[in-house]
Design a protein that fits this description.
The chain is an alpha/beta fold and 431 residues long. It contains 17 helices and 14 strands.
Length: 431
């Protein structure tokens, strides 16, 4: 492969978002359609020109969830006649009259054209809420023109929590906000809270809309990923629920500090030092076992697989793994991590998977390589890869050990990379 930069030659201000970009066939990262389908008993309505609708319709069809989505086409006539608001209102009314089951929540996605024309869509929602008091109408956005200041993904993670209302607080209940995948046995925090008598609520565990609304009774919201920050801040301001952000990191001290902070906020004892040391010992032993198995086999890390690719790369290097390359679009982690990699692993190859010249890059790799993430697998053309996005359900020491197990499995067994990376929305079931 070529088209990379040595990390030693880069600056911390690196940002690959410079204009024309390339979209690889690796399609496992979730988008707004996938996130919206997490809300039980809900319906999504996309109001866009035909060319924009094509993508969301194909995504929904691939999910086998066409019964959860409808569309309103915006045409040239709507722009010329100035009836955008009427078209939005009439379209939603017609859709609701034809649905087999009445939804409890409707997400209306407006697009860039509505912003260009300063459409008063809030007026439309006000009328709809008055005429359909049993339905929660939520304003959502499919506007890539705002991807630098208000990107659709984190905005939607906030918007779907706007329906949560103040309820009497349950001191033994806490929410996980903004996760796409159900946390469980591979999360230190989830297991510790449950073992200490806490009820952990999560949209991925809700079967009904009423069950989802009960999240308003929790005393705090835990977020694991940066795109969930908007939701955490908003709920703290609206409902008075404590916002407890934690990082899906590979820094042991940060894991311990986050666990302690969450426990103190919830009024439960923090993990004992003996427990922490035992978790570290098991993690270190497994790391050495997997490192011995891989030997000199290189690894390639992908930012879509883990939240902190630089930290993960540094952790792997410090544990004796041979990390050859990292796919990342910008540096958002601690500058100290970047500088440590410059010193300890100066020849680390850093690729931007979005760079337009990646379209013609030589994807071959001499010898075997194991990839962590779909994009790293695609660009290295390897069937030995960890198939995961956004850290999956992994957190803490349990999460690190799970990732090591997945790396071991990827090294030992090949996957059908070309087929797997083409499935849009990792972990989703296709229709």
């Amino acid at each position: 492969m070529n088209g990379y930069q040595r990390i030693a030659d880069m600056t911390y201000a690196y940002n690959a978002d410079i204009g024309l970009s390339y979209s690889s066939p690796a399609r496992g990262v979730w988008n707004i359609v996938h996130i919206g389908t997490l809300v039980p008993q809900s319906h999504q309505i996309f109001v866009c020109p035909t060319s924009c609708l094509r993508g969301v319709v194909l995504t929904t069809a691939e999910l086998g969830a066409m019964d959860q989505m409808s569309t309103i086409t915006v045409g040239e006539d709507n722009i010329l006649e100035g009836d955008m608001e009427e078209a939005l209102y009439n379209g939603v009314v017609k859709i609701l009259s034809r649905l087999k089951e009445r939804p409890r929540m409707v997400m209306v996605f407006t697009s860039c054209i509505h912003h260009f024309l300063a459409v008063n869509y809030q007026r439309v929602y006000k009328i709809l809420r008055r005429e359909y008091p049993d339905i929660d109408f939520i304003d959502c956005y499919m506007d890539p023109i705002m991807r630098r200041t208000a990107p659709p993904d984190p905005t939607l993670r906030r918007q779907i929590t706007r329906v949560l209302r103040p309820l009497p607080k349950d001191e033994t209940s806490v929410n996980i906000i903004g996760n796409e995948f159900r946390t469980g046995e591979h999360s230190d925090l989830y297991m510790y809270l449950v073992n200490n008598g806490m009820t952990v609520r999560d949209i991925t565990r809700c079967d009904t809309y009423d069950e989802y609304l009960q999240m308003g009774s929790s005393i705090a919201n835990i977020t694991f990923h940066k795109p969930a920050a908007k939701a955490g801040k908003d709920l703290e301001a609206r409902l008075g629920q404590k916002w407890l952000p934690v990082r899906t990191t590979y820094d042991y001290d940060v894991i311990d500090a986050d666990m302690k902070r969450v426990c103190e906020a919830l009024g439960i004892p923090a993990p004992a030092e003996k427990t922490i040391q035992e978790e570290r010992r098991k993690t270190e032993e497994l790391a050495e076992e997997v490192r011995t198995l891989l030997g000199d086999t290189p690894l390639s890390v992908d930012y879509t697989a883990v939240d902190e690719p630089l930290m993960f790369t540094l952790w792997l290097h410090e544990h004796g793994f041979r990390v050859e390359s990292c796919f990342i679009e910008n540096f958002t982690e601690d500058k100290a991590v970047f500088e440590a990699l410059q010193k300890k692993l100066p020849d680390l190859k850093v690729y931007s998977s979005l760079n337009w010249n990646m379209r013609t890059v030589d994807r071959g790799h001499e010898g075997m390589i194991t990839a962590v993430g779909q994009k790293a697998a695609y660009f290295n053309d390897t069937n030995h890869f960890v198939d995961v996005v956004e850290s999956g359900d992994m957190y803490g020491y349990r999460g690190i050990r799970r990732m090591l197990e997945l790396i071991r499995e990827a090294y030992r067994n090949e996957k059908d990379m070309r087929s797997l990376v083409q499935v849009k929305g990792w972990g989703c079931h296709c229709g």
